[in-house]
Amino acid sequence: MKPPDTEVQALSAGWLAKAEVDLRACDGLSAPGIELWEAVAFHSQQAAEKALKALLVWHQVEFPKTHDIQRLLELLAGTEPELAGASVGAAELTPYGVEYRYPGEYPPVDRDSATAALLVARQVCHEVARRIRTG
Questions:
Q1: Domains of the chain
Q2: 3-state secondary structure string, 27-48?
């Protein structure tokens, strides 16, 4: 497979940069005295979603407008079959980017849940960045 052209590389880097902004937002939102766990979980989902979209762009795989991380992983299965194993728990972030965005009946997000979501998001972003750098 030939490497992506510079336009594809730039767009992919843009998606990954947006994911990094979400991770930085998580750091601020989880700081002592702030501790907005629902927002940390939301931005964790956003970071993972944007990182996966960066990799889809890198591989020039079209994707629909979606917040469904499982769907994005499925789209990557043909070009990155081992990514699902390296992104364990990523699909579980989807509700934070969908249901939790609006008022509704769902369990509150506590420190442990938000911390776990952020850990998964960091792992997804790391794996995507590694693949793009070595791709």
A1: 6-134 (1.20.120.330)
A2: HHHCCCCCCCHHHHHHHHHHHH
pTM over 0.90: yes
Encode the chain (135 residues) as per-residue pLDDT tens digits: 555 688 999 999 999 999 999 999 999 999 999 999 999 999 999 999 999 999 999 999 999 999 999 999 999 999 999 988 888 899 999 999 989 888 888 899 999 999 999 999 999 999 999 999 866
Contact criterion met (CB below 8 Å) for 109 and 37: yes
Sheet strands (E) in 43-109: none
CA distance 100 to 39: 9
Dihedral angle of Cα 49, 50, 53, 58, to the nearest 10 degrees = -140
Axis crossing angle, helix 37-58 with helix 111-134, rounded to the nearest 10: 20
Contact between 59 and 131 (Cβ < 8 Å): no
